[in-house]
């Protein structure tokens, strides 16, 4: 009995190591490069437009490079073969790790910061995950953390998992309120889903259990219950990440800082109204010092005393009148001087 045909003429499929509603993941051997890889083979076909979208998004994912991303090596969008070839991560999922007991808060914050950093990278490149959940978080044997299936929900849409109206079918347990209500879905939806994943990791319970519809609608009725006994930093981060209004959630980069302790405050997303314009801003009056007044007052008192003393003094006597100078000096002028002197005495 011969061996099964190679996938894409290159990949020999081995044991199935994972299965979902859309695809099966196999351990596989790349016969060309002689390396072990993970092959995700989709069970659904797609039309020409869907296959083209699949190829475009697969190329985008393959172009991303981040330590927390599972690398995409190859893909096929042929009608009979729709698959992704990815890096094989040996380890367990976050779902496996929290199945028996919740994680310590410090561990939750550490994993959350790494995942938020991955989200910040892919969001910066214009990619939305749409399906962040514990089973898509891989923890390798060396404790490295990976966010797997990035964009797979969108790739799955190209494989026939999208409705005629264009509404994506995702995992209801971790959907954001705007996804449930049919609103505009953007990067804050991934932040919300990560918040629910971390909350579940810290408490050991699913925040919105139940069937798909029941779970989806329940988040429109109540906000997630974040335990008060969690450390204050983790508590603030989870509250901000799971805000009902997407405009109030921090972005992924801010979440990474909050969870890592690099930031202690949640950055506000809504600006407070200004109470006064810059032209009418009232500044506090500076405190005035009494020293200049004391100095100037003392100087004024000294001047006033000097003026009083000056006015109290008697007037100075008039200088004696001297005989007028007349004629040349010497004996020849003596008779004239005597006559002048005699005139002064008579007066």
TrEMBL record:
Segments forming domain Protein kinase: 11-267
Keywords for this protein: ATP-binding, Kinase, Nucleotide-binding, Serine/threonine-protein kinase, Transferase
SUPFAM superfamilies found in the cross-reference section: Protein kinase-like (PK-like)
MF-aspect GO terms: kinase activity
EC number: 2.7.11.1
Binding of ATP, residues: 40
Keyword Transferase: yes
Claim: Kinase is one of the keywords in the record: yes
Superkingdom of the organism of origin: Bacteria
Pfam families the UniProt entry points to: Pkinase
InterPro entries, sorted: Kinase-like_dom_sf, Prot_kinase_dom, Protein_kinase_ATP_BS, Ser/Thr_kinase_AS
Descriptive protein name: non-specific serine/threonine protein kinase
Species per Swiss-Prot/TrEMBL record: Saccharopolyspora oryzae
């Amino acid at each position: 009995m011969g061996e099964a045909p190679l996938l894409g003429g290159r990949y020999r499929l081995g044991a199935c190591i994972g299965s979902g509603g859309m695809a099966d993941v196999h351990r596989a051997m790349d016969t060309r490069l002689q390396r072990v890889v993970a092959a995700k083979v989709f069970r659904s076909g797609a039309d020409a437009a869907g296959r083209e979208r699949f190829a475009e998004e697969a190329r985008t994912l393959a172009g991303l490079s981040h330590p927390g991303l599972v690398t995409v090596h190859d893909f096929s969008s042929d009608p009979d073969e729709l698959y992704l070839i990815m890096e094989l991560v040996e380890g367990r999922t976050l779902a496996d790790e929290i199945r028996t007991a919740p994680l310590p808060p410090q561990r939750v914050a550490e994993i959350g910061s790494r995942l938020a950093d991955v989200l910040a990278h892919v969001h910066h490149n214009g990619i939305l995950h749409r399906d962040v959940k514990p089973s898509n978080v891989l923890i390798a044997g060396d404790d490295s953390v990976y966010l797997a299936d990035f964009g797979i929900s969108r790739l799955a849409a190209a494989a026939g998992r999208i409705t005629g109206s264009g509404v994506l079918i995702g995992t209801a347990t971790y959907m954001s309120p705007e996804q449930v209500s049919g609103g505009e879905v953007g990067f804050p939806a991934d932040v919300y889903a990560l918040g629910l994943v971390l909350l579940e990791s810290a408490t050991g319970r699913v925040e919105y259990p139940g069937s798909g519809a029941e779970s989806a609608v329940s988040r429109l009725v109540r906000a997630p219950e974040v335990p008060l006994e969690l450390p204050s930093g983790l508590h603030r981060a989870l509250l901000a990440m799971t805000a009902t209004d997407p405009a109030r959630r921090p972005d992924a980069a801010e979440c990474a800082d909050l969870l890592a302790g690099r930031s202690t405050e949640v950055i506000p997303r809504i600006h407070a109204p200004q109470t006064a314009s810059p032209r009418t801003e009232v500044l506090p009056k500076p405190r005035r010092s009494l020293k200049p007044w004391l100095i100037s007052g003392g100087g004024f008192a000294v001047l006033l005393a000097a003026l009083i003393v000056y006015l109290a003094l008697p007037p100075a006597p008039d200088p004696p009148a001297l005989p007028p100078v007349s004629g040349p000096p010497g004996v020849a002028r003596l008779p004239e001087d005597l006559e002048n002197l005699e005139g002064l005495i008579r007066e």
